[in-house]
Q: What sequence folds into this?
């Protein structure tokens, strides 16, 4: 036996350090049994962390039919929302002895089929017949799934739903309470999509039609953060630049703040900005970003994903997250009285 083998922590050594049976340690580290007291579970997790314990995933897969893997298929890793999801799920998975794999812009169906994770999180899949067939085939094969979608219904998989259109209206109304000179920064393609259903852009369209917005300043970009920055610079360099920008995501809003600062403008003194998503990056930026989004979205999603990894497949559940306005510095002009 080599020195590394002799000192490598095992499930038995973790259990001994925590003062529990190996069966209890196994249940805690796999996240299987919610009936184990929280204090006991905390001791096991602390012992595993202190010893640097890592489960033998190959042995686990042969013994239990589980791989110990969580797959996250995310659409845009540069988006603070995607970063928040991957960080929260990764941390929660690790606490339960699971490893999170992140796939960006990939063929999620092929990857899930090949990797066979304990659970797969699929971000905003298409809503066509092919996607429906792929989801059905995965469920029939026993694959656990959590799908983020505003429109899909559960069919043997869980659906995380968070309708953004009402949140967009909250953020826009926050700007309109200060000024009617509001622009909307959104990816190309959303204008056409809003003709089919309510989207993040719909509230702005309606405000323009109702005369609540002084003039239509819809500003399109290519969907990237760099593209949002370039579009915002062009908008703010115009002779009749707006007094406020509503962005379709937090990352686009942060790009707009960066564009304003690049041009020597101050936020919120010269420009008010709102985003959508309520990301940690937006809350921690300078100035902090006013945004609409759910409370504790990342932590709550992480728990849903980890729970799904350890239970039997059922009919599926809808987890609906309400959007709220989080008013911060980017829409709080200084008091002219100096108070």
A:
């Amino acid at each position: 036996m080599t020195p590394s083998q002799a000192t490598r922590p095992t499930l038995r050594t973790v259990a001994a350090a925590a003062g529990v049976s190996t069966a209890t340690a196994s249940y805690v580290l796999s996240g299987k049994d919610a009936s184990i007291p929280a204090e006991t579970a905390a001791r096991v997790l602390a012992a595993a962390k202190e010893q640097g314990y890592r489960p033998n995933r190959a042995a686990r897969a042969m013994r239990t039919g589980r791989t110990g893997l969580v797959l996250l298929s995310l659409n845009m890793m540069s988006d603070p929302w995607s970063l928040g999801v991957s960080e929260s799920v990764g941390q929660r998975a690790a606490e339960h002895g699971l490893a999170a794999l992140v796939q960006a812009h990939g063929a999620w169906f092929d990857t899930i089929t090949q990797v066979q994770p304990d659970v797969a999180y699929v971000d905003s899949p298409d809503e066509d017949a092919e996607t429906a067939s792929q989801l059905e085939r995965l469920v029939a094969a026993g694959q656990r799934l959590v799908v983020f979608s505003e429109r899909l219904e559960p069919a043997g998989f869980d659906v995380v739903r968070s309708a953004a259109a009402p949140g967009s209206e909250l953020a826009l109304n926050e700007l309109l309470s200060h000024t009617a000179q509001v622009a909307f920064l959104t990816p190309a393609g959303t204008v056409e999509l809003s003709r089919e259903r309510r989207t993040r852009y719909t509230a702005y369209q309606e405000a323009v039609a109702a005369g609540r917005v002084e003039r239509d300043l819809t500003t399109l970009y290519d969907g990237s953060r760099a593209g949002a920055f370039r579009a915002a610079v062009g908008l703010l360099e115009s002779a009749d630049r707006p007094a406020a920008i509503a962005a379709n995501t937090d990352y686009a809003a942060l790009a707009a703040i960066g564009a304003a600062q690049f041009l020597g403008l101050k936020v919120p003194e010269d420009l008010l900005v709102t985003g959508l998503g309520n990301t940690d990056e937006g809350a921690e930026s300078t100035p902090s970003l006013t945004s609409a989004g759910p409370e504790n979205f990342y932590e709550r999603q992480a728990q849903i994903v980890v729970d799904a990894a350890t239970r039997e497949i059922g009919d599926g559940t809808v987890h609906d997250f309400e959007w709220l306005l989080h008013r911060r510095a980017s829409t709080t002009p200084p008091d002219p009285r100096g108070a």
Q: What stands out?
A: The first helix runs from residue 3 to 7.
